[in-house]
Amino acid sequence: MRPRSGIKSILSRVQFKFALVFLILIAGLLVMLNTYPTVVTRDLVFASKKSSLENQAGVISATLSVSESLTTDSVGKAMDFLDLRTLGRVIITDAQARVLYDSSEFDYSPGRLALFSEISSALAGQVVCYCVYDGEAFISSEAMPIMRAGVAIGAVYLYEYDSSQAALISATQRNLRNISVVFGLLAVAFTMLFSRALTTRITDLVRATRIVSGGDYDYKIPVRGSDELSELGAEFNNFTGRLKETEELRRRFVSDASHELKTPLASIRLLSDSIVNAEYMDKETMVEFVTDIGTEAERLGRTAEKLLSLSKLDSAAGFDFTELDMKTIVEKTLHILEPLAKERSVRLTTEADEGCAVMGNEDLLYRIVFNLAENSIKYNVADGEVKISLSCNPEAVSLIVEDTGIGIPEADLPHIFDRFYRVDKARARDAGGSGLGLSIVHDAVLLHGGQISVERREGGGTRVTITFPSYSQWEVQS
Amino acid sequence: MRRFLKAPSARRAVALTAALVLICLSACSTIPRADSEQEYIEVYRRIVSSVSPGSQLLRAEKIPYTEGDDIVMGAALALRSAPEDPSLVSALPPDVNITRATLAGHTVDVLMSAPYAKLEGMEKSLLEGAVALTMCSLPGVDFVRLHTEDNSVTVRLSSEEILLYNTVVSGAQAQVRLYFPRLDQAVMSAEYADINPGDDASPERLIMDLLLAGPSSEKLYSAIPEDTVVLSVYTQDGVCRVNFSSEFLEIAQEDTAVINLTIYSVVNSLTNLPEVDSVQIFAQNMGSAVLGTTDVSRPLTRRASLIGAAIY
């Protein structure tokens, strides 16, 4: 048995695993929430800026490519005409990268050399666009050549610094992050609460199991709620209840068995002591006493045999099952009981169909019929009758043993098959019974997959009805 | 203590430490006090793998030179040499050479070999930029004149005319160039400053405030008299009128060259604004129309020839 701390660590690992999986999923979701929208939005802005800058550069480049020559004046006039106000900075250069126009409000540049890499690429004939997001703003630059007759006569350079779009994205990011934090904390809290609640109930179950296996069958788990764990708890309580019943049955059986064995042994002891201690005993008395000893010994033997049968039936082991014809068994049994019946002046009658086959053990089936028929004879009246009926259909075989005897009181009917149960204790012992015969019949019937019932007969007496599955049915089932 | 020293591990440690100390001492004596004696010139190179947008095309490489040598010729030879950094390449195309470089006044005269005349476009501008920036980084050099033997191609540049990258970052904040006279010579140099123009302060006002505040570099100075206040500054039809308080007239005590530089530092600073074509100076109680040798009776236009290499 693992120590308590060991069990606790296993549970906490289950709790931990559950919480971990859940939290990993939540964390993954939150990471996605915080990165994907920003990335998508940023990429959208990049694309839109690129296209907008390219359009504007295209307009400027097209306008300037038709002017006769690129000078500061001609470019200045053209740019005034275009009246572009939206951009951060526009620089127009000639083919040597000398600035012809600069829209910057504070830095007079015409005449300077603008040795930018974008302008270098543009003068080489390429259109370049560069957009970056640094968390504060979208910084974009675009350069396009001014072409005439396939030659770059100058370059257009656009530069834009957009902090308002960036501010929107930053604000959204901030909000998403706050939502994520709150949600994450809630998720952690709920996970811990829920997994704790779950594992507490499991721990209770484990503890209850340990208590019950220690011997306290009365311990019940409190059943809360209506989910699977509650079902488990309820089933556990049923299970322990049945354990308790079984344990009691076992105890009573052992106690009854030892009592049944002790009683004849005590009689034998008494009788033998009497013989030993008697100063003088005449031969007749001695023979009588010794005969009694023999009788008790026989009874002891019979009881022991029956106990052994029951024990074998309990373990349901070692019985060979074959296809058997019930009619043969019934007839054989009655044949053996004829002397007893004649002695008690009881009439034996049979009504048996042909071809009633069952899958069974010959000895057990014989025992069933014999025990029932013997009881019917023993507890009968003078000139009474014992009738055995055997009928069958393709699915089942039915055996009825009824008598015109003294019958069984209503109150005793439910217990008639219990071990060591006797209706009239005094009378039964005289008749040599141990209260085990019907138990053997009952268990044997069940072992054959059959059913047995007992009822009082109209007009007095008892009727025992047994149904077995027919041999063909047994084959189908297996 | 004695027992400690007797242990072999301790002895080894002591011996090692002693050896280290000796090595250090000897090394110290052999390391030349280079940092205080060794001079470097900044030679501008072309960046090879540049074409990622936003990056520069020229970068400076520090080349050591020994004092006493002809620094200008040294710079010229360094420009031709191959750079150590594999990501850089000489700004001179393979067939173009600097034949001669001499310093005259504040201008370096650079004689280029004949193939220079055939250069055009970006290649030519990068060469001129690199030469200008390299030469102007030398002490005492403000201008560079490149020309061929027959003077068919002549270019005059100062380092201020080279833009290596976009200096305007955002629309709200702006970088302006302010000019202040140089301590060592009769030119002015540009300093960069950020201004935040808005409704309450026009760019002209902010520029004047910064000029009055003086330069941050130690190599520059401001000759505008203390306590001078700009009473008003506004632009109309391209002419910017600056009204100084009467304290400004104290500048007449200075050297005429200084007066000229000071006045034109104001003019050049303000004409950096595109809408300002010329600047007219006024001062309270100004009697004559001449300050020093400078005629201020009419609007003055920008004089780029007074502008030397920029101070960064």
Structure description:
The complex is a heterodimer of chains A (478) and B (312). Chain A is α+β, with helices and mostly antiparallel strands. Chain A folds into three domains: 4-169, Beta-Lactamase; 216-317, Helix Hairpins, CATH 1.10.287; 319-477, Heat Shock Protein 90, CATH 3.30.565.10. Chain A has eleven helices and 13 strands. In chain A, a hairpin with a 5-residue loop joins strand 12 and strand 13. In chain A, helix 1 (4-65) packs antiparallel against helix 4, helix 6 packs parallel to helix 10 (437-447) and helix 7 runs parallel beside helix 8. By secondary structure, chain B is an alpha+beta fold. Chain B has two domains: 36-159, no CATH class; 174-306, no CATH class. Chain B is 27% helix and 27% strand. Chain B has helices at 2-6, 8-30, 34-37, 71-80, 121-136, 203-213, 256-270, and strands at 39-47, 58-65, 88-89, 98-104, 107-112, 143-147, 154-157, 162-163, 174-181, 188-195, 230-236, 239-244, 278-283, 290-291, 294-295, 300-301. A four-stranded mixed beta sheet of chain B has the order 4-5-6-7, covered by helices on one side. A four-stranded mixed beta sheet of chain B has the order 11-12-13-16, with helices on one face. In chain B, strands 2-1-3 form a three-stranded antiparallel beta sheet. In chain B, strand 6 and strand 7 form a beta hairpin. In chain B, helix 4 packs antiparallel against helix 5. The longest helix of chain B is centred in the N-terminal third of the chain and has 23 residues, at 8-30. Residues 31-36 of chain B have low confidence and may be disordered. The A-B interface holds A 88-89, 95-99, 102, 104-109, 111-121, 123-124, 128-130, 132, 137, 141, 159, 161, 163 and B 50-58, 120-122, 124-126, 128-129, 157, 160-171, 174-177, 195, 197, 203, 271-274, 304.
